[in-house]
Amino acid sequence: MSEGIAYQNKDILFKILGQTYKEKSFAAYGIDLPPIRELLPTNLPKISANEKDIDNLFLLADGTYAIVDYEAEYKKLNKIKYLNYIARVMEKYYKENENFDLRLIVIYTGDVKSAEPNFETKCLTLRTEQAFLSHIDGEAAFNMIQQKILSGTVLEDDDLMKLVILPLTVPGSKGKQEMLEKVVDLAEQITDEEQRIFTLSGVIVASDKFINRDYMEQIRRRINMTQLGQLYEKEKIEYANNKVRENSIKERTEMALKMLNRDIDIIDIMEVTGLTEDELLRLQEKGVTV
Questions:
Q1: C-alpha to C-alpha distance for 189 and 146, rounded to whole angstroms
Q2: I want to staple 46 with a disulfide (CB 3.0 to 4.6 A). Which of 51, 207, 244, 280 is the partner?
Q3: pLDDT-based confidence at residue 247 (cuts at 50, 70, 90)
Q4: What tens digit of pLDDT does each residue of 23-37 get?
Q5: Spatial CB neighbours of 223, under 8 Å, sequence gap ≥ 6
Q6: Secondary structure class of 2 (helix, strand, coil)
């Protein structure tokens, strides 16, 4: 199994995906949900040090939030992980929205045929909505989408949503890797640039936990020659530049706080740190010391 895409890389891919997920639905997976309004960041505060990031977090068209987690096996202990996910999402979004509502979607790969959806104790009931990709004939779906692409037919949103999870419809690591390679080959033949980018980035994110890391690196090198690769490199540079700016602001803020604590003239602080008078006054009002 892969240890997962490094967060920086996943963050960049999510940004690319976020531009094209809008208004797509989960109907292709057999789940009846409102269309997607927005793909949300998953780098939420962790409850435990070894806790992994949520696979996907969506804002749906009806205003509800949806945690989406992919699993290759059913474990009752995963319910604890889901409760931690729920707590993290609520900590972030419940305070911002008094009408907050949340759904938990578990998508099982082709390795799982059935699973217990709910978990109950005296103090709570956890309800999950499940999709079993074992119900999808991956080869048949692949052949149908391939015929559409070869004939020049524009793919529907359901075709794209199904295409990105086709590797997960196959049981076993070897089968997933083989299907992933076929999907990447096919995606490169999609003439619509936005659909091609969505498929290539989507399939990597969806298959992240289940594909051998070395194999995933081979796929990443292949897509570097595509438009996605060029977009990815631009986003990576922007990501790095933003981090530099964030660090610079933090350093200047810390310097300003130290100078404010020493009652240095505010004009001198503005000249040294580059912060505005309003920014310095807000820092002063907070009364924070360093």
A1: 9
A2: 51
A3: low
A4: 899 999 999 999 999
A5: 184, 200, 204, 229, 232
A6: coil
Q: Tell me the residue ranges of DSSP E strands in the chain.
A: 36-40, 56-60, 65-71, 102-108, 118-120, 125-127, 129-132
CA distance 82 to 95: 20
68 vs 107: CA distance, rounded Å: 7
- Long-range CB contacts (within 8 A, 24+) of 278-286: 280/256, 283/253, 283/256, 283/257, 284/260
What is this structure's pTM?
Answer: 0.73
Collapsing DSSP to helix, strand or coil, 173 comes out as helix
CB 255 within 8 A of CB 287: no
What span, in angstroms and rounded, lies between the C-alpha atoms of 154 and 47?
44
> Which residue type is seen at 118?
N
- Cα 187 from Cα 181, distance rounded (Å): 10
pLDDT greater than 50 at residue 289: no
